[in-house]
Design a protein that fits this description.
CATH architecture of the largest domain: Alpha-Beta Complex
CATH topology of the largest domain: L-2-Hydroxyisocaproate Dehydrogenase, Chain A, domain 2
Number of helices: 12
Radius of gyration: 19 Å
GO biological process, one term: tricarboxylic acid cycle
Structural class: alpha/beta
Bound molecules: ligand NAX
Keywords: NAD, Oxidoreductase, Tricarboxylic acid cycle
Order of helices and strands: EHEHEHEHEHEHEEEEEHHHEEEHHH
Family: Belongs to the LDH/MDH superfamily. MDH type 2 family.
Number of strands: 14
Helix content: 25-40%
Strand content: 15-25%
Pfam family, one: Ldh_1_N
Function: Catalyzes the reversible oxidation of malate to oxaloacetate.
Strand order of the largest sheet: 3-2-1-4-5-6
Length: about 375
Amino acid sequence: MRRPVRIAVTGAAGSISHSLLFKIATGEMVGHDQPVILQLVEMPEAMEPLRGIAMELEDCAFPLLHSISLHDNIEEGVVGAHYVMLIGAKPRGPGMERSELLTANAPIFAKQGKAINEHANRDVKVLVVGNPANTNALIASRNAPDLSPAQFTALTRLDHNRTRGILANRTGANPKAIRQVIVWGNHSSTQFPDLRHATIYGEPAFRQIDQKWYREQFIEKIQKRGSAIIDARGHSSAASAAQAIINHMYDWINGTPENDWVSMGIVSDGSYGIEKGIFYSFPVRCDYGRYQIVQGLEISEFAQQKMTETEQELIDEMRTVGDLLPAETEESHRNLSVCLRSGITLYDDGISLPKQYLQTDRVR
Ligand code: NAX
């Protein structure tokens, strides 16, 4: 049996976590032979419901669930963590603008970035889910000067999965036969689901779908899927978000399948002309616990316009939270090109000694 890994989850008593924690405990996220320690973080007022969830987890008698600890503060919650999922965030209230949500959540993610920097394992992998996910990831990463920006990611896998699922439904293909879809940009209604490189049963998707449907209906359907779910069920996506988190982390840790890629919100190294330093969703391949942006894809004029639109939104968001982005981490976030392209190591990006990120003894 392997030694357990530590997984910290914030917003652990919320809706997404209610699906996610049970999947993690069965081994779906890291691997079916990997014991896990769950470090669950909540607001002080939600500790009692969290205790109930911990009891339920215990009652499942999961063989891989080594232990559970409950925390009402982030500093304790991320101690020694190998994986951190930042899910808890203030929800968007009625009539609240996106920019208001951004300023309400920004200080929380700055604090969490600092706590991860101070207390997590040096090899930690962080996934930001709480919205606005991309810019919250930027804030957390910029507040973690001792870690590599490549250790922080934002969830756009739900959008990627939606793209495959809805395309499968349209064409009658099994989702597993649909490969190489891309979601570019922000996890928001400006995101660009791109089918230009996608294949269905190995043949170009564009030969099998109607362009008018793609441009006039499909793109908007993916962009607005989150709102459609809120309208229909009265709550935002929870089980599908949990599934996407599992997929994102599993692939990051264990690698993407051959002949395919996935979409992940990561710090931009300037690939495809995207502003360096913002957290933008790119097509990536993962291997050995690292990811690389898929290079050399042809970008049409139509795609370029959509990619720029969502890029601009992220640049604006970055400006809105500018006072929470310390100057000392600007350089490391703007100079990633070697580590993201080399294929040798992502963590050897010159901001610190590689051994800091490549340690293999995962338990302190
Ligand atoms: P819930 O409101 O059900 O749960 C959130 C939980 O987080 C609550 O229990 C709350 O007490 C806790 N919380 C709030 N601030 C916290 C903090 N500072 N530290 C620790 N815990 C904290 O929301 P849920 O449906 O679980 O969604 C969570 C977040 O995911 C939201 O921000 C939501 O917008 C976002 N989503 C992001 C998605 C993505 O693809 N990136 C998709 C799903 C979801 O919409």
